[in-house]
Amino acid sequence: MQLRAALVTPVPNFFVRSHAPVPVIAADAYRLHVDGLVDQPCTLTLEELQQGFPVHTVTATLQCAGLRRRELTALEPIDAAEIVWDTDAISTARWTGVRLSDILRRAGVQPAAAHVGFLGLDQVAKTQDGLGGSIPLAKALEDDVLLAYGMNDAPLLPIHGYPLRALVPGYIGARSVKWVGRITLQVAPSTNHFQARAYKLFPSSVRAETVNWDEGEMLGVLPINSFITSPQAGVLPTNETRRGAVLVQGIALAGGDAVIERVELSNDSGQSWTAATLTSPPQQWMWCFWEATCSLSPGSHELVVRAFDSAGHTQPMHLADVWNFKGYVNNAYHRVRISV
Ligand SMILES: Nc1nc2c(c(=O)[nH]1)N[C@H]1C(S)=C(S)[C@@H](COP(=O)(O)O)O[C@H]1N2
Ligand SMILES: [Mo]
Predict the structure, then answer these.
(1) Sign of CA dihedral 134, 140, 144, 149
(2) What is the pTM of this model?
């Protein structure tokens, strides 16, 4: 898989997810408004952001909540409006910008504030509004939460949020609001469609026809995940298997702010497991690459992967354990059936 070619994804290979057309924003016309429960509401230009605050760089993986939705559709159909992602809605970049906490301290956070809302400058047709969302204030004050203007040492491209985007490591991609134009300190989470309705997790018994949108859990922190990127399901070419050994490779991402501790691979549908080798150093906010070599007899085999992280988390065993009608955050054991 192309995405596993490099630990830091080249920008042309970085996945893109936008709910509306890319807004065209000139650098000198751009303004960031900071308002709500702050002592000093303020408006900042791009130049003020770039010159007036310390520069901070974070290497972080961005993952869409819809990653691995396709596997869930095999159990039961998912909301047709959702993109059917495979394991490809995930990438890693070096993000450069200012710390959100520096901006918040400059504005002066009032004691009643508990959530930090972001609003994008795009126009989503369905909602007649930008894409917005919020994160808890405690998360917003963490050192590695950025308002980023750079990606892999170059200015952000328009598709990735130029001139400024939020970058919230360890959270679903939707909270890393692109083209961010307004930051609002508030008592409660954002009432924007993408926080209050979309990106909510419902139990498997809930269907589109029966859903009460006031219920459900607002997604935020990403759960631990791992998946096989190679081989893909199907019959392996004989040149790969002649040696009797199959190289299995993949990606693991710890939950939230944890780090990957180990990855295990099974070649017998999960009856027995062996440790995979981590081929990149486990690092906070960053995916980790792993591989293992399996000896496989001729016939059909189900490869399965699962990961464990420093917070003691591992993955649910079955897709049915995580199925939800919007198809979010599938982190069940990843299974690939191959024939040798
Ligand atoms: N303003 C705005 N921000 C947004 C989006 C959007 O549509 N509008 N998409 C979100 C989603 S769902 C994801 S997964 C990430 C994707 O970021 P990328 O396109 O840079 O990969 O951006 C998030 N930020
Ligand atoms: Mo997303």
Answers:
(1) positive
(2) 0.97
